[in-house]
Amino acid sequence: MIIWHSLSLSQISTGVTVKLSGWGGNQVEQKLLKQVIQDFETQHPQIKVKYEVISDQYMDVIKTRLIGEAAPDVFYLDALEAPFLMSQNVLEPLDGYITPEFDLADFEPNLLNSFKYQNQIYGFPKDYSTLSLFYNKKAFANLGLNSPPKTWEELRSYSRQLTGKLNKYGFGEVPELARQAYKIKAFGGQIIGKNDNATFAREPGLQGLQLVIDQYQKDRTSAQKSDVGTNSGSEMFGQGKVAMVIEGNWALTYLQETFPNLEFATAEVPTINDKKNTMVFTVAYVMNKQAKHKAEAWELISYLTGKAGMEKWTGTGFALPTRKSVAEKLGYDRDTLRSPFVSGVSYATPWQAGKYPAAIVNNFDNQFISALLGEQPLKQAMVRAENAANQEITAME
Q: Which are the contacts of 194, defined by CB distance < 8 A and separation ≥ 6?
């Protein structure tokens, strides 16, 4: 921790205000964050935190304010957006603030690495979620399926058996790149190359994506949300339209609250090509390089991502702690529903797509759905998406 006597007397006596910004989560999340901030202010009476929710166009607002030197001192940064901002010299490198008490080694390396750029740390992850398999226990019991599928071949076999029984489809598919990147990686493919250019149309990556196409077009045992009139994978599953779906930790609370009678369980994502994989989504607290009160801004970051602050923040289970010691203390690795999410963090593919993620993601999503619907062959669709993405990236560089 920064030692307080390093601050000037005038700062201590008049008090310092640190501005903090994030996007609007649900009400429970907002209430919890306000409580954690209140705890921080109680322990640091010389610092006030002005918390602001940016509920619309979050990254656009942050980028505009950074250019205009009006950005908050501390703010949320999603791993997907981190590579670009870290490369722009607008964030404060945090290595110089870290002390032994902060216990850097306690963070999950796979999460911390998403906020490293040119050997410097620019953010500390506040929470995360991986993806896990959700399955309907009643549907499984009806068919005498005693355990979740361990491999993708098994998942497809289960889907065939489950389709048209208690549920219309065996599996709910979410075709966005955010849910497909680990399948590209399973056969040695990559989303981007060294120059942040798209590379997902190469042969190894196509093997993983072909699994999705085959299940949807040949087996006809999977459905996407629009096929069954729902808004998300969680809703497809909750409404009983599909017997299995791959979703994030956030779906647990949603399902328990919205579909209280649904009997479900979770498991690690089935292996593909004999490899374990999943996605991991994480958000960090970062410091504005122009922050006027950097020592105080660091105090806030170190509290929010420290052991006590993180335990309070993740104690209700809607988000998972990025510190190993906190996860252990809260027992999430032993929680029947949450343990698959915790197990996946060490081998998960972080949700990042280089410095120009919008070009990569939008072009992939548009063309992959077109291929899924049979409007064009997979390879043609992905080559189109890759070329269009790379033209956009070239224009932005």
A: none
Q: Determine contact, residues 280/349, Cβ cutoff 8 Å.
A: yes
Picking from 267, 264, 245, the residue whose alpha carbon sits closest to that of residue 255 is 264
Q: Which residue has the higher pLDDT, 195 or 231?
A: 231
**pLDDT value at position 317?**
86
In angstroms, the CA 299 to CA 43 distance is 11
Angle at 95 between CA 89 and CA 100, to 5 degrees: 165
The answer to whether the beta carbons of residues 243 and 170 sit under 8 Å apart is: yes
Where are the domain boundaries for CATH 3.40.190.10 in the chain? 4-129+281-350, 130-279+353-396
Q: Which element (helix H / strand E) includes 251?
A: helix 250-258
175 with 234: CB under 8 angstroms?
A: no
CATH topology for the 4-129+281-350 domain: D-Maltodextrin-Binding Protein; domain 2 (3.40.190)
How far is 266 from 264, CA to CA, in rounded Å? 7
- Angle formed at CA 37 by CA 35 and CA 39, multiple of 5 degrees: 70
To which residue do tokens 């081998």 refer?
Answer: 347
325 residue type, one letter: S
What is the rounded average pLDDT of the residues 33-47? Answer: 95
Pairing of strands 279-287, 74-78: antiparallel
Task: Encode pLDDT of 245-278 as tens digits.
Answer: 999 999 999 999 999 999 999 999 999 999 999 9
Residues contacting 254, CB < 8 A, separation 6+: 234, 238
* The CATH homologous superfamily of the domain defined by 130-279+353-396: Periplasmic binding protein-like II (3.40.190.10)
Tell me how far apart the alpha carbons of residues 182 and 187 are, in angstroms, rounded to a whole number: 9
Instruction: Give dist(CA 268, CA 341) in Å, integer.
Output: 7
- How far apart are the C-alpha atoms of 200 and 202, rounded to whole Å? 6
Task: Round to whole Å and give the CA distance between 304 and 55.
Answer: 21
CB atoms within 10 A of CB 101: 9
Could you give the CA distance from residue 63 to residue 30 in angstroms, rounded to a whole number?
23
Q: For the chain, how big is the Rg over CA atoms in Å?
A: 22
Calpha distance 88→353 (Å, rounded): 16
- Confidence bin at 14 (pLDDT 50/70/90): low
The gap between the terminal CA atoms of the chain, to the nearest Å, is 39
> Cα separations (Å) of 344 from 82, 116, 315, 334?
22, 21, 19, 14
